[in-house]
Design brief:
Its EC number is 2.7.7.65. By secondary structure, this protein is mainly alpha-helical. The chain has 17 helices and seven strands. The longest helix is centred in the middle third of the chain and has 83 residues.
Amino acid sequence: MRLMSLFRLINWVLALVVAAMLWRLAGTDLAQWRQAEQGVQALQDLQRGLGLMEMISRERAPSFAVLGDIAPSDTAPQLTLTRARQRTDLAFQSLQPTPPEVQRARQVVEAVRESVDAMAMRGRVGDDAAKQGNDVGRLRDAVLLITPLVDQRAAATGTAFPALASDVSAAMLAADLREEAGVLGTWLRPALLQQRRLTEHELTQVLQLRGRIEARRILLDRHLGAHTMGPAVKEVRERLALGYFGRTQLELQRVIDAGMRGTPYATDVTQFGDIYVPDMAPLLGLRDAVLAQALNHARDTLQQAQTSLQLVLVATVLAALLLVGSMALVHHRVMRPLAATAVTIQALADGEPVAAWPAVERDDEIGAVLGAVRALQASEVARRALEQERAELIEQLSELSSTDSLTGLLNRRAFFAAGERELVNAHRHTIDTAALVIDIDHFKQINDSYGHAVGDQALVAVAGALQGQMRHGDLVSRHGGEEFVVLLTHCDLTQARGIAERLRQTVAGLNIATPLGSAFGVTISVGVAALDLQLVALDDLVARADQAMYRAKRNGRNQVVLAEELHDNSPGLDEREWRLALVAG
């Protein structure tokens, strides 16, 4: 087959392959966008479902308040109940279209309301406390009817956004905790209302509920710890720890203990509710905060999927245009001239000898240049191998020339080479920069007492401690002997002092083993200097930090001194005499 015919065939095959790939890519992004959109809708439905469960549960307290009215003329409890019912009705209306389980829950709620209204018309009757509790407790049945719908929406959210599984689980656990906490209060109400001992059945229910609440609390903590919590979630979690899981549990235990022993309660139903109900509110706050965090993440994901889909569609159109244009360009600028050149070369080969032309190895237009291409390719491979070998050698030599052989830190030359660049950048962009000069205290005594091998071991240990405390981008080097120098970028004087103190404390906690089995500790003196407009050269900055370090030595060692604090004019040895005294031991 001639190359021109082969080129046309390849063009069609390539066009089909590219079209299929772009179609597949666009289809994948479209599916991801649809999945994200459905996930956001499921998460919003989950919010509404949990909100409906909350509104139904919140009808319990005002219902009990109405049943506990002393006189029917007192309308405040009735007004509170009316508002609670209105909120529940709005929550029912938010779930449109209404699923069958929500319709059945609505019927249960209406039946409970009719029963509560009928009992409220008869006034307060103490002996009816158990019946009142059972009737109002049927609101729990309505909540349980909605639970499968909520679980379904939660599963859909997890499928669309696997990263939000912990958030969704935490929100549902918080909602379950609020529901279980409300039911627990319902079981305690009759005994508190009548100031009597808890029955065996009531006690069993209360203890079981407390166990379930504790189990859900543990699971909630695990889910909240599985990801980074936002400020709102942290704040509500702290309120819960102090409130419902703190003082409320203590009050609850006192009530249960009194109910078990039959001793008088220290509180009545109203006082207990004033403590118990407000402390349950953060459970719903935690649920809402976690869901809000999850919804923000889901919406961001949806926006990213939508943007990706738009980019793919634009890229598809551009790729199609580029493919067609490229085919036309290659045909016009490459294939046609190449075919003509091949004919010319063949004519020259048939008619006249051409010593410089490579031999033809294939019966097509490209065959005439294959030999030269192969020769160039072999030459290029050999050249690249030599360049790679040379680059590796250069890199090894560079590493050896810039590293201290004992500690593995930068040596003095490499430190100043890198530090000068950092200083130029700091002056140009007004970046806070500081230098630390660190010297091991009494290092000569270590060498004299334990030998230079142990002294080297101490140097390595201190170097490792310094390196372990450094931030990304900081420069740490061994300056010679027992002295180290650190350059801290993006670090003001206060921060540099804090880092220096942390280094001092870290080194002070080291234990250096000796060949005899004993161990000793080491301390360091640190001088700190911050970069200002007058310190143009790195030498000047290090010199100021060095002066501060010797002042730390002079003040008793194992401390941090700032160069800005060097204003002590008290009599004594000058810095040069002090350094000579230190060297002399």
